[in-house]
Amino acid sequence: MENDNIFDDNEEMLPTENNGGHLNPEHFADVPKITPLQGMYRTWFLDYASYVILERAVPHINDGLKPVQRRILHSMRRMDDGRFNKVANVIGHTMQFHPHGDASIGDALVQLGQKELLIDTQGNWGNIFTGDGAAAPRYIEARLTKLAQEVVFNPKTTEWKPSYDGRNKEPITLPVKFPLLLAQGVEGIAVGLASKILPHNFNELIDASIAYLKNEDFELFPDFPTGGMVDVWRYNDGLRGGQVRVRAKISKLDAKTLVITDIPFGKNTTTLIESILKAVEKGKIKIRKIDDNTAENVEILVHLPAGTSPDKTIDALYAFTDCEVSISPNACVIRENKPCFIGVSEILKSNTKHTLHLLTRELEIRKAELLEGWHLSSLEKIFIEHKIYQRIEDCETFEAVIQTIGHGLEPFANLFRREITRDDIIQLTEIKIKRISKYDAKRADEYISSIEEELEQVDYHLQNIIPYAIDYYKRLKKNFGGKFTRKTEIRSFENIEATKVVVKNEKLYINKEEGFVGYGLRKDEYVCDCSDIDDIIIFYKDGRYIITKVQEKAFVGKNIIHLAIFKKNDQRTIYNLAYRDGKHGPTYVKRFAVTGITRDKEYDVTRGTSGSEVVYFSENPNGEAEVLRITLKPRPRIRNLIFEFDMAELAVKGRSAMGNILTKNEIHKIALKRKGESTLGGRKIWFEPEVLRLNADGRGSYLGEFQNDDLILVITRDGHFYQTNFDLSNHYDDNILYIEKFNAEKVWSAVYYDAEQKFHYLKRFQAEQVSKPQRFIGEHPGSYLVRMTHLEYPRLEIKFGGDDKDKEKMIVEVAEFINVKGYKAKGKRLTTYQVSKINELEPHIRPEDLQQEEINDDNHSEDDEPDGQMSIF
Fold first, then answer.
1. Final residue of a structural domain among 213, 229, 259
2. Are 694 and 644 part of one and the same domain?
3. Identified catalytic residue from 51, 139, 460, 526
4. Residues 656, 699: one domain?
5. Whole-model pTM?
6. Each residue of 304-356: pLDDT tens digit?
7. Burial, 496: exposed, middle or buried (Cβ in 10 Å; 0-12, 13-18, 19+)?
8. What distance separates the 2 farthest-apart alpha carbons in the chain?
9. CA distance linking residue 372 with residue 754, whole number of Å
10. What is the distance of C-alpha 152 from the center of its chain?
11. Residue 753: active-site member
């Protein structure tokens, strides 16, 4: 094989004794440089990564735009004539500046248009709710919005660079005078890093910029175009490691239908419905069918099968579908030509400072223009009024003309704000005779005065640049803020435990003889319904217990005495136990709860002595304590072979507690004599208005202590009342007026406007126990509730309006005005005059009421009393 030697067999190029052992550099002039392969990869990859980061994927902090977005807006500005342009034409024009093809330009343009901030659109631009794509570029049109023209462009303050082919100029960054990056949001994946900045509300960004200029604190939270609800507890200012939880808005249309009206950001109705159907296939949720009626607004109807709880289904939708998603922001921007990670507050501060700089620069440029205009106008005025132009009639050369005019202007040099230059004089020589002959000195003075006035104003703004910038932001908000109301509601979400809301889609079986449990043992003993994500707790005869995950079939061992679904952190389920310590030791009794454990780890409820055995066991969901009948084995000197023991005498302790000695004698059997009542008392319930949910953790307003049959009364703003149980999974709508523990004896007083009779009515009634919401202000849809009170002796003040506005106000003692009747009664008309306002006055306290109140205060401690009700009026 031929040898391709780079020296071409020139032996003299090698070092020899004749040339002193040195290589001649001239011999290597045409030899190609060899770069190791490893070096190539290191250099090329770094160049590529830098290019993608700086020129494609990450926005610049100054204008908040990626290069393709900046080039699109620059092209649209050059094309702008106030009319719509075909998107195909915009794409073609942008290709002068963007070297990556029309597809990337078209996609970026559609995304900009769908954000409805900088681009007015015409035609089918797709739908962010359904995920439908835009029509072809030849069918849709676009133009810049008035907001874009106001805040994005100014050639005088723009820094330029050559385009990729050198034929045009493009902006390095656009002079954006608004937090555009935070308003639009951005998502980009580069090489080795990514950027994800969530969109924020237009008006809130302006308020935050004003607050920063005033040295006031501010806080920013996302606002998504798809609406929904967001929990920003862990937002972390948009930095890496932060997280927001976004939920769809789900409400009850009726007892068998749920309606989804907003969707989480980043999802569309198609992906959302697919996630719901997958959860249905896995048996997590029971749903009969789904209808997607989305058009201009989102409307997904979820139809439930009979007997399905809509409240529990709502929680299940949040737990198992894309109705709730977590979004992790990662605020990465280009600053000083390199990527950096900063929070949204720092981005807003940087943008506000940049806006301040741009406003200052615009004023400085305007000042320079005004000074130049004043200088030239004043120069022209002196040149014409003092007839200096007549002195050049005898000049034979242009240079002589320049010198003559210069000498003529010398006496007035101290009147000018800068030196008179040769260019100024040349400009005077270009004035036409016709203009000189028609020169109006008065008009010229007025023009110079107007320049001086504007100069004074510009100087004032420069000296007070902070107030000037604040006024600029306020003007933006006034002109454009009306269409940018907040779409995403900020809420505090509770953590939904999946095991509490999952549909019981399996049945749990046990084979005690062989020691197997699972939902696949269909021929064995049925235990209970379960789901495939549940945990089960298993107690054994020797006092051990374990908690393990439900499986199709699992070997857990023999001698099982109790098997059930385990509820984590459940402090109301109490286990009552009697065990023999060792083979011949005494028998102990104990009560304990199991709240938190390590899965698949064995625990022991006995003292651990070899041969210990459980002789009695019961599970009590509400802490019940039974009475036991104990029969002992006959032995000499034992007088009472049968005795009773009340488990309520024992305190509930930890699982590792030894317990109390029941007897030292050998037991023949233990039997249940009488079931007991709960020793834990009623359950204390609170209502948290921020999340419209009940809880037992002390959050919100205390409603009271509830026993099994107690109910909660809800009175709504639209004139309905109904009762619910105190299940913590209940959902409540946000139109609640009162929510409290139901008391059938309490009297309610209500003033409402009867739309049928067109008068105000007053009624007093007691809320009866009902199964469905009942309307107590009549059936006419135009009737509405005006005032509602639960006081025993309320007083009302009626003020009149319209033709009766001069009539003296009326005071009504409600208890004397009308008696208590049923909630369906119409009530009594308050007045025939036109009513403008009805106020509730402080009631007169009667002596007998005061005495009774003092008695009640003596009999009840303050800590035991509930707040009475939670009013959200």
1. 213
2. no
3. 139
4. no
5. 0.74
6. 988 787 888 898 999 999 999 999 999 989 888 888 899 999 999 999 999 99
7. middle
8. 155
9. 73
10. 28
11. no
